[in-house]
Amino acid sequence: MKTLLTNPAGWKSLITFAILFLAWVSGFSARLFAVIRFESIIHEFDPWFNYRATAYMVQHGFYNFLNWFDERAWYPLGRIVGGTVYPGLMLTSGAIHHVLHALNIPVHIRDICVFLAPIFSGMTAISTYFLTKELWSPGAGLFACCFIAIVPGYISRSVAGSYDNEGIAIFALQFTYYLWVKSVKTGSVFWSVLTALSYFYMVSAWGGYVFIINLIPLHVFLLLIMGRYSYRLFTSYTVFYILGLVLSMQIPFVGFQPIRTSEHMAASGVFALVMAAGAFNYIQTRITKAEFKFIFIFATLVTSGIVLLAVVGLTWAGVIAPWSGRFYSLWDTTYAKIHIPIIASVSEHQPTTWFSFFFDLHILVCVFPAGLWYCIQEYNDERLFVVLYALSAVYFAGVMVRLMLTLTPAVCILGGIAFSKIFENYLKEETPPVINNSTKLIEDKQSVKDKTPSKSSQTAAGKSKKKPPTVVSTNGDCSNGEGVGSNIRSIVTISMLLVLMMFVVHCTWVTSNAYSSPSIVLASFSSDGSRQILDDFREAYYWLSQNTDNDARIMSWWDYGYQIAGMANRTTLVDNNTWNNSHIALVGKAMSSTEPKAYEIMTSLDVDYVLVIFGGVIGYSGDDINKFLWMVRIAEGEHPKEIRESDYFTDRGEFRIDSGGSQTMLNCLMYKLSYYRFGDLKLDFRTPAGFDRTRNAVIGNQNFDLTYLEEAYTTEHWLVRIYRVKKPDEFNRPRIPVSERKIRNPGASAVSKKSARKKKGTIYGKPVVVKGKKPKSTSTYTSASGML
Amino acid sequence: MFLLRLFMVAITISATYSIEINPKILINNVECLVDLSTQLVKGECRISLENNDDKPVNSILYAFEPSYKNHIAFVSAHQIYESNRLGLHVKPVALLGHGDKQFYQIDFNATRPLRLKSRTPIVIEYVLTNALYPHPEEITQKDRQLMMFNGNAYFYSPYKTLKSSIKFQTGTRRIEDYTIFNPVSLSSGDVIYGPYGSLESFAYSKVSIHYDNNTPFLKVTKLIRTIELSHWGNVAVTEVVDLAHHGAKLKGSFSRYDYQRETNSGVSSVKSFKMYLPASATSVYYRDVIGNISTSNQRTLLDSVELDIRPRFPLFGGWKTHYTIGYNVPAYEYLYNSGEDYLLKMRLIDHLYDNMIIEDVTVVIILPEGSSDLNLKTPHPSVRLPDGLHYTYLDTIGRPTIKLKMSNVVESHISDFELKYKFPKAFMFHEPLIVIIAIYILFITVIIWVRLDFSIAKDVHSETRQRISGIMSAIMYHIERRANVYNSWDEALNKLKHTKDVNSYNTTVKQIQADYKNESNGINELAAKLKTESVELTDKLNDVQKTEKLLKELYGQTQALYTEKLIAGKVGRNQFVELDSGLKRKKEECQERITQLLKSLN
Fold first, then answer.
1. Architecture of the domain defined by B218-428
2. Can you tell me the ipTM of this complex?
3. Residue A477 to residues A407, A433, A457: CA-CA distances in angstroms?
C-alpha cells in the first residue's frame, strides 16, 4: 500500500522523461563525430553561405540583413540576399546568440551555427514523440523518438557543422504535423492557430514548406471524399489555411507566391471545397433530400467549372505562374536531364538507389510497411494523415536522393508503431523481463511494458481524458497473443531486440563513416595508422583572403562560390544559389574555351583570379575535371554555336585526358589550368611524370605554357590551384616579324572589336528558348554540392 | 607609434633645460659590433669613458644618427665595474639645437658617479628595426634576397672620440658591395671600418653594405595580447597576430612545382617558425577565422613549451597572414597575495618568434570581477588607454580592464609588469551564488507552474478529476488507518490467546471498536461525496467495503472462538488450531482481495 508503488503514473512520466532525455542526448552526441575528429567547423557548401549570412545579421542587425545587397556574389549582378533567402535559420541562431550575449555568455556565432542542427534534432525527436503519441500510443511514440534521434537518413543532414535549412526544418515539419493532428482531433481554434504559427516558422526556414501546404490539403481532401467531414475539420483547416497563407506571405522570399503559383493552388482549392462542404451541410438540414441532390449536383458542376476556368485563365494571363522546372522534375525524372542540366548536375537530385534506402533507414525500411498497414487497418482521421504522409514521402524519396530526408520522419513514426505493436503482443506482464540495462532500447521496451498493464487501470480511474482507441484492439490482440507459447514469445522478443541493437550499431557506423566528414578538411591515414590532414581548401581560401585585393573577383565553378565568399571573403561570379543559368553558362564557356577565347570572357567579366580544384596529385575524385562535362553541357545549353559537347569526346565517344583525348579537350582552359606544370611532376617511382591519380592516366598535353594567366598560388597537395589573369599589358605577346607589323590606332579598334564580339556572343547569338528557369522559384531548394 | 612619440616627448621636455653636452667628457676607445645578419640591426658598443671635468659626472649622453632616429626600438646600457655588469638607467632626452638626432641619457648609479679624471668602461646595446632595405625591392621566386644597409663608418657621439672601430657582421659571405672608406677590411662576412684616430663629436660618413640576407623578414604589424586572470587559478593568454613578410616582394608567379622540387626556390620565404611559451602553458590553440590551423606541432621542453608554427601557406615577400594563439597558465606562478591585496606579475610581451618586430601592440589585462584600486607598473614606456569593463560568463558588474599600447617592440622588451589591486575574497562566491539562485528560481517556477492552475477557462474534466483524487486520497488515508486498527486487533487477539485475560482484552477491544467506527464513518461520509462525482469509483469502493465487512465478521468469529470456546475450554486443542488457522487463512484472503481492489481504485 505504499503510495509510490500504487502510483504507476509517476513511474510512467519518469521513464518517459528519461527516455526522451536520453534520446535527445544520444542524438546530439551521435552528431558530434566531425567535431571530435576535426574541429568545430562549418561543413560543405551551402552551410558556408548560411553561416556568412548569419554572421552578417549578427553584426549588422536584422533589418540591414533583410535589405542586404551582396555585391560579392554574382559579379557584376550582385544578389539581393534578404529577398532570396529563407531567413528562419539565421534568425534562429541569431536569436540564440542574442539571448546568450544578453546573459554575458560570449559564445561565438560559429559555434552556435555548428551545434544548431544537433540541438534541433533533439527537438525533432521530442516532436516526433508527441506526433506518434497522438497517432498511436505513447509507447510507439518513444520508439519513434529513439529512431529519429539516431537514424542516418536524418543525421546526414544534421551533423554538427551541417548548418543548413533542413537542420531546423525537419523539426518545424514534425511539429507542424503534430499540431495539425492535434487540431484535427480537437477541432479547437487554439491548436490550429498554433499549427499556422509553426507552419510560418517552417516557411521561414525551408522551401520544403510546399510539402506541408500540399499534404495538409490532401489530407483534408481525402477526409472529405471519405465522407468524414466534421466541424472539427472545418475549423482546423479554415483557420490554418487563412492564417498560414497570410503569415507565409510575410517572408520576403515567398512574397505573393502562395496566391500566384501552381504549387500552392491545391490548398486554396481545398479551402473552397471545405467551404462548399460546410455550406451543403448547412443546407442539408434545411431542405428535402431530393432538392438537395439537385442543388448538390448543379452547384458542384458549376463551381468546378468556374474554378477550372479561372485557374486556366489566370495561368494563361500570367497571374498564376505555371509549375517551375524543379517541380516538373519531381514528376518526370528525365525532365531535368533534358531541359535543366544544372539541376541534373547536382548529385543530390539523382534518383535514389535501393541501396541508399537500406543504408539510411536500415531495419525501418522493412518494418514501416507493417506500421502503415496497422494505420490503414485501424484508420481514423489522423492516421489517414500519416498514411498520406508516408506514401507521398516514399514517392519523393524515390525521385530525389535529398528528399530521403522527408521520408525519414514518416518511416520512424510507422516503424515505431510497428515495433510497439509487436512488443505489445509479445511482451505481456507474465514474461520475465530481459535483464540488460546496457542499451537504451531495452529501456524502451520496459517502458512499453510498464505502460501496457497500467493503461486499462488508468482509463478506468478517469485519469486520462480520452480512452485511447487502441485499448480495445490491444485486448483483442492480447487474447490472440495468449495462445502463443512463452518460448515463442521470448524468441520473438529477443530477436526483435537484437534487430534493434543491430539498428543502433548500423546507425552509429554510418554516421561515423559516411556522414561525419566536413568535406573541406580531408583526412588520410598513412600505413602506420597516423592521420594526415589535408587542409588544402582552407589553405587556398585563406591565401585568397590575405593576399589578394579586397575587391578581387574570382572565377570558379559554382560549387565553390559559397566557400570562397565565406572563407576568403572575395567576390565571386557564380555560386551555389544557381539562380542565373546564363551567367553560369558563361563561366562554363570560359572554362571550356581555349585560352585566348576564355581571356575575352574573363576580361569582359573583370576576372582577377581563376580558381580550379585539381585532384590528380592525391587522387581526389570530386575535382573540376570530373565535373567538366557538366560545365560543357551547361555552356552548350546557352551557347550552342560555340560549345559542343561532342567536341570534348574522342571519336569513339570517350571522355579522356590522355594523349588519346580530343584536341578541344586538351586545349581548353580547364585542362590547362588543372595540368599546368603537372607534366613535370613525378609522383612516385612507379608512375611516369604527369600521371593523374584520379583518372589513372598520363596527361595528353604536357609542357604547355600559359599566355594570359599566371600561377598565383597552388596548395601543398595541388588540390586548389589559383591563377592570376594578367592585365593586357603583361602578356608575352607572340613575336611578329618586323615586316608584318602594322600600326593601328589601338584605342578605337580595340574597343570596337571587343564590343562587336560581345554583342555577337551574348545578345545576338543567344537562342530565344524559354527554359524552365524562373529566377524566383528555382532556388526553392537552394541546391547544395554539385558533384558528379 | 604617434602616441608613443608624444609620450616620449612629454618626458623629455621636462628634462630639456638642464641637459647639455659636457665637453669635458672624452671617449678613449670604442669598439662597436653591429649585427646585420637578421632582420634587426643589433648594435653593441664598448666604450671607455674618461671624465676630464673638475667635478664628478652623474650622467652621460648617447646619440643616434639622424638617419637612425626613426628606427630605434630599444637601448640599454651597463657598466662594467670590478668585472660585474651593472645595469644603468637609460632614458630618451631631447637637446636644444639637435632636434634631428635622438639622444639617450645614461645615468650612473648615484653612489658611483664617474669621478674626476677617472675612467670607466660601459657597454651600450641597441636594436634598430626596419633599418635594412630590400634591394632590389622585388625578386622572383628563384632569386635570393639582397639587403641594403646604410650606416655610419664612425662612432657617432656627442663627445670627442680618440679611437674607434665599427664591425658590421652580415653573417654571410655573399656580400655584393660595400662602401670603400679606408681603413676598411672584409673578413668572412664581417665588414670592419677603422680603427680611426681622433674624431670630433657627431662625426658621420655614410657607408652602405649590400649583402645577401635570407633570414625571415617577418613583422607583426598588429598584436593584441589579452591576459585574462581568474582567481579560480587560471590565467588565459590570447594573442591575435597580424604577420607580414616585409622583405623583397615576390615578383611574377608562384610555382608550387619549383617550390617543392628545387631547394633554392623561395629561399627568402618563411615556411615555419618557432614560438616559445611559458613552461606551464597548457591547452594551446592556434587558429584563425576559418578554424584550426592543423599544420603546427607542440613540444614540451624543460623550461618552455616550443610551438612550431606553420602558417597555412608559406610567406613570400609582401604576403601576410593573421592568426590567433592562445594558452592557459596556472595563476599561482604569477599571482601573489596578502589578505585582500593582490599582485600580478607577468610578462607584458612574450616571445612570438626569434628576432621579432612588433610594430603595434595592445595589451589588455582583464582582472576578476570586483577588483579595485588598480596600480600598474610597466617596465617600458607605454601609453595607457582608458580603462574599461569586460563582460563574460556570469558577470554582472563587469571585469575591470586595463589597456596599454606600445609600438616598435622587439625581443629585448620582454619583461614583467606589476599590477597591484584589491579584491574582496567574499566576491569569490558571487558567481556560484548566481548559479544557485538561478537554478532555485527555475525550480520554484516549475513548482508553481505545475501546482497552480493558470488556465483562463474552467476545465470541468480536470477539476472533477482533481476533486476525485482529493476524495480518494482521503479515503485511502482512512483505509490505511483502518488497516492499522485491524493490526492492533490482531495483536490483542494474540495476547488473549496467550494470557487468556478476557478483561483486559475487552477494554482493548472497546477502544479498537471505537476507532473502527470512526474510520468507517469517515469512509462512509467520503463515499457519499464520491457518489456524486464518479459512479464507477463508488462501485469499486462498495466492493471494498463489502469485502471489508466480511473481514470484520471473520474477526468477530475469531474473537468468539477465543473468548467463548478457548477460554471456556469448550474445544480441544487440535480442533482449536484447525479452526484458528482456517479463520486466519480466510482473513488473509480477504485482505489480499482488498489490496487488489484498492490497487484498481488508483
1. Sandwich (2.60)
2. 0.77
3. 29, 20, 18
